[in-house]
Amino acid sequence: MTTSPVSVALTTSFADTLPELALAWQAEEAPDPTLLTLNEPLAAELGLDPDQLRTPEGVAFLLGRSVPSGARPVAQAYAGHQFGGYSPRLGDGRALLLGELTDTEGRLRDLHLKGSGRTPFARGGDGLAAVGPMLREYVVSEAMHALGIPTTRSLAVVATGRDVRRETLLPGAVLTRVAASHLRVGTFQYARGLDDLDLLRRLSDAAIQRHHPSARDAQHPPRALYEAVVAAQAQLVAKWMLVGFVHGVMNTDNMTISGETIDYGPCAFMEAYDPACVHSSIDEGGRYAYGNQPAAAEWNLARLAEAMLPLLHEDQEIAISMAVESLGTFRPLYVEALLSGMRRKIGLPPSADGAESTALVEELLGLMEADHVDHTSFFRALGQAARGEVEAARSLVVDLARVDAWLARWRALGPDAAAMDRVNPVRIPRNHLVEEALDAATAGDLAPVERLLEAVTSPYDERAGLERYAEPAPDQFGPYVTFCGT
Residue 237: how many CA atoms within 13 Å on its side-chain side? Predict the structure, then answer.
């Protein structure tokens, strides 16, 4: 590892504050690196020079092979429940935290690598990543950002020139990821597993300082932190549900304390509305199906409460009572966030009668489920229906009598079409287009990825030439199955 000429100051606050959770390590060599894609707007936001990042020295920095003086890359330790089974030691098996930097708005953000090689946390894995999965994370995370959903971001994907063995040999790559931090529910579980109360307190203090500073002045800061995480996750999952996003692997190590979406492995966007929608190859029981995501989040938050019990009260019974009470805020917060979002999607003002608007939402979702209506297309078409052009919405439904009755009740409330267009996307990362673009990129053609990025990072604008990016998958595409990429 050499000192990087890239102009950036990386701090080591995570490693300095929580050394028990930081293992100094370095990225593996890349035999023939090639920059595949660079997020220039994000680079500028971080105070980095895109032209500098495109140089050989910049690419070496993005691979973690050349870092600024004083930086100390580390693999982070964490635990986690994976599909309900507890693993006391997971950690960054193929990832490294290069350090933290302060962006142009004064926010501290992590600069992190994925696919940079084996660490002692690798548990038998090769520590590498393939071009396809890394570009998937780049595309989908940037689409989520454009949709206004809190998310980790993707700065760059660099091909390494090394093949990665999965079912076949695939070209390898490293993703450079940006996050508010990588503190997870699993980070707290790991600290609790060490039975180190001082570490747990320092971790809580670090999370408060980094993400929820208002908790510092609360009567009980750790409890205020926990409730802030509960609230952030309630808002986040509601936002997922409103756009039809299916995370696919909601393990506790994939739930952030900041409230950002993290880990875009077996993720997908639902097309036909279906609460049982599952795309992940490893989710055979539907634990993380679209409709199960709120309950999965609540379960994960219960595990966070268990990890934080010693911080809540020295008497365990009292601590449990406090945790149960605080966790109890998740459901009402989630339901309110979801219903508020649904009222916006159908164009009703906040002053609309709550019972009537809730009944309209529930009836509409039942209709969409029964007729397998495309989620994204239908809500966008409702904007036209609010203007009196109902055929686009009607054409997506089989039960015309039922939808006509619903449309009549809804239009009588005077929905705001322009407001609907601001929250109902024209384009999401359609699964067939994602696969098409990733297959092309794996074969060396990046043009489809670039066109897809152009489409999904302007999701609300009607734009000539991008019509195919708004269309559902053709029937021959068949059931969509995603893989975690490891």
Answer: 31
Cα 106 from Cα 168, distance rounded (Å): 44
For residue 248, give both structure tokens.
């696919």
The mean pLDDT value of the chain amounts to: 96
What is residue 25's three-state secondary structure?
Answer: coil
200/181 Cα distance (integer angstroms)? 17
Which structure tokens are listed for 290? 């679209």
314's tokens: 């020295």
The per-residue b/e assignment along 342-354, b for 16 or more CB within 10 angstroms, e otherwise, is bbbbbbbeeebee
**CB neighbours of residue 408 within 10 Å:** 10
Whether residue 194 has pLDDT greater than 90: yes
Determine the average pLDDT of the residues in 456-483: 93
Question: Tokens in use for 38?
Answer: 């660079």
For the annotated catalytic residues, the residue numbers are 253
Q: Is the pTM of this model over 0.85?
A: yes
Phi and psi at residue 5, in whole multiples of 5°? -80, -5
Tokens of 59: 């690419």
pLDDT, tens digit (0-9, with 9 covering 90-100), for 133-146: 999 999 999 999 99
